[in-house]
Amino acid sequence: MSAAVDRTLAALADPVRRRAVELLGQRPRSAGELASDLGLAPPAMSRHLRALKQGGLVEDGHPHFDARVRIYSLKHGATDGLKQWLAETEALWTHQLAAFKAHVEGGE
After folding, report:
1. One-character DSSP codes across the chain
2. For the structural domain made of 3-106, what CATH number should be given?
3. Contact 85, 12 (CB under 8 A)
4. Quick one: pLDDT at residue 75?
5. Could you tell me which residues are beta bridge partners of residue 94?
6. A single Gene Ontology molecular function, please (predicted)?
7. How far apart are CA 41 and CA 44, in angstroms?
8. Is the pLDDT of residue 63 over 80?
């Protein structure tokens, strides 16, 4: 498993961060909006956003009208490595289970 997939899974291990990803999937939001929607204090939200950024899932930018505000959004292609790993793992398990089934049904 690659380091990028490890970071992605670590970022998604927390239910609050998974909920933040769901909210950002609806539309980009400020940290304050996310904190409010998730019922978190701003420092706690900041820690979760930092983990999501380190996991490669979220990026931030400034709106053209106010450079003091950061708007967070999902990073395009952020889960591509995870999807590839999951597909490879599924293929491995499918092969292993088919071999086990053949073994059991063959009576060997």
Report:
1. --HHHHHHHHHHTSHHHHHHHHHHHH--EEHHHHHHHHT--HHHHHHHHHHHHHTTSEEEE--TT-TT--EEEEPTTTTHHHHHHHHHHHHHHHHHHHHHHHHHHHT-
2. 1.10.10.10
3. no
4. 92
5. none
6. DNA-binding transcription factor activity
7. 5
8. no
For residue 58, what are the β-bridge partners? Answer: 74
- When pLDDT is averaged across residues 63-70 and rounded to a whole number, the result is 80
Strands 29-30, 71-74: pairing kind: antiparallel
Residue-range domain boundaries for the chain: 3-106
Instruction: Quote the pLDDT of residue 107.
Output: 62
How many whole angstroms from its chain centre is CA 30? 18
- Residue carrying structure tokens 């769901």: 22
